[in-house]
Amino acid sequence: MKTYFLTLWWALFLGLLAITETQATHLRAGEITTRRISSTSLTYEVTMTTYHDEIGGRTASDQQDPSYFCFGIGPAVAVKRASRIVINRATTANTYVATFTYPGPGTYRITCTITNRNENVRNIPTSIQTSFQLQTTIVVNAALGLNSTPVLLNPPLDSARVGQKWCHNPAAYDADGDSLAYRLYVPSGKLNDEQGNCTLKSVSGYSDPTLIGVNRINEAGTGPATLTVNAITGDVCWDAPAEQGQYNIAFIVEEWRDGVKIGEIIRDMQIIVTASPNKRPAIQVPDDICVEAGTLIQRNITATDPDGNRVELSAYGGPFNVGPDGRPYLAADGKTRLNIISPEFATFSPTTAQNTPATGTFRWQTNCAHVRAEPYDVIFRVVDLPRGSGQTQLATLESFRIKIYAPKPQGLTARPAADAAGRAIILNWTAYACGVSSLPEGSQMVIYRKEGCSNVALDPCTNPGLAPSTGYVEVGRVGIGQTTFTDNNNNQGLKRGVQYSYRIVVMLPRPNNGQSVVSEQVCVNLPQQVPLITHVTVDSTFETRGVITVRWTRPPGINPNDGTGPFQYRLFRATGLTGTNFTQIAAITTTLQPTVADTVYTDRGLNTVANAYRYRIEFYFTEPGTGQLQRLDVTDNASSVRLTATGGVKRVQLKWEANVPWSNDNQQHRVYRSKTGPNGPFNLVAVVPVTTAASYVYTDQGADTYAADGVQPVSMSVDSNYCYRVETVGRYSAPLTTILLNNFSQGVCAMPIDTVKPCPPQLAVDTLNCAALTPEAFCNQTTFANNLTWQNPATGNCDRNIVKYNIYYTPCEGQDPVLLTSVNAPTLTFRHENLSSFAGCYQVTAVSRSGVESAPSNRVCKDNCPYLMLPNVFTPNGDGKNDVFQPMQCPRFVESAELTVVNRWGAKVYQSSDLSLKWNGKNSQGKDVPGGVYLYQVTVKFKRVNCSAPAEIIKGWVELLREAGNAN
């Protein structure tokens, strides 16, 4: 809740006439607003509201009809005045309304220039000769719908008092629920400007009003005077004026949607500063509130005056559905009422003068149509009515913010689908309390799901919606009139053994763009009619004889004596954590008797060094009557645990993962170490608390923090190999399967590395001197070679134990080089042969004995020396000498070329894309062309290290000599 103060100008206006001569000047304040009025065309209604001086500038105000609008395209257009409403004896509010249809989407600036401002504006030199310019910028795009700019509901009729902080708030309201932001702006205008000018220019010589006067300090006396705007609330404050007079300032109201600015309005306003002994009144408003739609909001606002003067209370804001003049909004015809908010509207009374202390009542019966994401701002004002003449009326403003949310959906239930094999959950809920007719078209019921049934505390005011941190994910949307939804995980089926929590919430489109309170959760899990895989654990790590044990449960929902036996498990395996190439590896027939060991399988002959493996089980029953096996359902896939180990500086970094239907989160996993090999024996060295898959990591620096099996720390030598396996711990979330599931990864080994990396080498490549090459250089040469040399830096903290160098190459600059080859140390040279050209870029890295690679060397690039020279005469007479127009010597590094020949009248006679660039003096139809001078153009693409370089164009002339009568 923000409080700010102002003095009311119009009651003291006559006392200021001494500083304002009666001249044909009249503009004090104004802004331009727009709204799209057609859903089938880009037609907008544009409204300019200006506030005119009716004492010092009555004549000019009378004559200000029409005004001229520039719509951002085309010339200025004359617009007649639609209304002229008396605000008080000194001021009128004037509106000019036009419609304009834009030809297409784009950003347009709507401007208006009016010839004169007031005279004697203190911070605008020669203000009487300076124009008053307004501008509003809109983004025209059909996708924005019937968008309108915000409207400014608090009129700019403010004045200030010397030495006292002054504030103004425009009470901006956006009917589309867009976000608003505010910033200061230098007023626009030009000397001796003409109406109809479409170009804005900042006022020449404009001064910040805080720089005018002698004692330029703030009201508290703690620092210099300031002029600021709160970017969020829109409070524009001048703390504090130093001298009397008229001043003009401007600020911008920006309109944002989904992080994109879609428009802005300039408000230019005038402030009259006086000196007055009167003390300003005080006002008290309620705290900001957040309520459910349908709540009756009724609050009292109280005001007192320290001088005992009578006071008047008033209020502004979107909930009242009235303009800044206090009258209902009307369409361009002046008759049709427009609503910027749905009924019912808020009221405030009384607004007549009262003795102090005074009380006013704000009343608003909210409903579902008032729900929106952005809060409503209401500005309350109290102005005193001092006794006696010559005293300035003072006013105080304070804001009251209201957030309205939609009611909570009720009656949510969940049950498994009748077809158990479908793995689906059916949700039902009662019809929404607001009703379809009271909500905007496109309102939806959004369904969320998470695994597990832990409750989440949600507050519709401080914590609306279901953020990702709650664990819920959106699984579907239906129209607001529907009351059921079937969740089958996008036809993939839900998991067995998992308990799911569901919640629903109503989402409203623009202009509301709000949402309801989240429903209560409902928890459910699928019936256990199939087995659950519980273990996929690696028993041994070998390339050809690795072993994995798979275990599962019997289906608890199946009665072995119900007459549908015998039953069968069919076990399938795929390679990889996410493998899909499942093949059947076993079929186990069972009667489901607990005395039979039929829920375990040992899978042998695997390459557990290179691969993880993934398993699933299909469950079959015997169909009564036919005796045929029929598949009832299939388990979710479960993989083995895959462990990776990477050597670090005196450490080994471990990371593991598994793709399983149970959760391994929020458990304590175990890390085992061995110095013997990937199959142990192992010693438990650490118990790692994990939360999510991102925390399945451990860095071994040699410690052994688990004492129960004997402490065996190591020094992490770079010459030693250390082997590991990890034991994960998990569980299903369904209540029937709360046992812990322990599974081992394969064994994996790694070596720590040295403390420092090798230094990057310094690389050089032999170069070409293109200027020194003869035209015959590289003629008819088809392969090329580049010679590389490098050196290791003599200084620096580097590992000097280099075992090899990696050479990286790319034929194009700007691309990342890829590994070309490696050479063993101490070799420091390399010849790159069999190239199609010299063009290419290189880098070299050094690799230490521990396998650590240095940073790349400097990048060195080498380019070709292209060459193409054409003659200026040829004689196609068939004597075997100079019969063909073609390049002289041989062209170098031509990748593609096109030759075009035209005669002296510009007619094309020949064109070819042959790399030889030959022309035999015939036209494209094969007939000889006559002798004479011809112009040619060669468009040639050379092989360059800059592979994206454009083709070059070579133009010239050639004379074709032919004996008379030789052309046909």
Automatic annotation (TrEMBL):
InterPro entries per record: FN3_dom, FN3_sf, Ig-like_fold, T9SS_type_B
Residue ranges crossing the lipid bilayer per the database entry: none
CDD domains tied to this protein: FN3
Pfam families: CHU_C (PF13585)
Name recorded for this polypeptide: Gliding motility-associated C-terminal domain-containing protein
Lineage: Bacteria, Pseudomonadati, Bacteroidota, Cytophagia, Cytophagales
